Amino acid sequence: LATEYDRNWIGRYHAVKSELITININPALAYKVDEHLSLGFGLSAQYADATLSNALDFGTLGYLDGIPEATPSTPALDGFSELTGDDWGFGFNLGLLYQISPSTRFGLAYRSQIDHSLEGNNTLTIPDFAIPLAGPSRSRGGSADITTPATLSLSAYHELDHRWAVMADITWTDWSQFDELRIKFSSDPFNPDPNPSVQPENWQDVYRYSIGVNYRHSPQWLLRAGIAYDESPVPGADYRTPRIPDNDRLWLSLGASYTISQNFSLDFAYVHIFVDDTPIRDTEVSTGGLAGVPVGNTLDGEYEASVDLAAIQLQWTF
Fold first, then answer.
1. Quick one: fold of 92-316?
2. What's the predicted TM-score (pTM) here?
């Protein structure tokens, strides 16, 4: 998950780069209770690495302090803040598969939330004219608590005949626990009691609905198509930030599998994602933990976006 803007863009005091990378290690066990019911259990070890950066409006700070060369909201007079942090977190997942008949089955899957306490460094770049106001460029400690949400999925699969099969899925995601992004900073000689950076989020729980169809064209070719509607957890423009300018999405997908031999197959996929027009009205609330840095800039606008994805995969079964 990542967004990145030019350092001089109009919303630079709200966000420049936002990136969250997660790596999951998930050993699992499955147990077949009888010919109909199978159960699964797994443990998750998740590594999270995050980067958050934004510009700091020292031009306005210097202007208000009477520095002659300072002018408000001037890119050449900006400072810069970059926070990096990482952590390991742990969770679990449960699964159930019930085979009603040879042609019909249902599945239920739950994945727990995983809590992270990201710790790392906050690197501050201070322009020369602002050193008397904020101290020199420096690095200090920074931390933030984040949680990857719990999910619950119900799915179904049914073969209509030897060629056609249909499937459906509904997934709930527990985003309502993400009510704010709070970043804490360690003290340093130039700022012994830094305020935290607090961005209200107030996200909501969401659902994702999907249906799909498979068509067995021949022993070698399996064709696929699907559609999905993916709700956004962001409640509206006032809580939408340029770090995650998210909105509801409609997915249309096409795919195919070609069996080369008993051990090898090729998979092809194409997805187009329609994203609803995304209004944003984000008022800057954080000083980046630096006393005196002005806030209150409002980024008011609208995002328009769509996404195209294409993939080819070679599968080796042994």
1. Porin (2.40.160)
2. 0.89
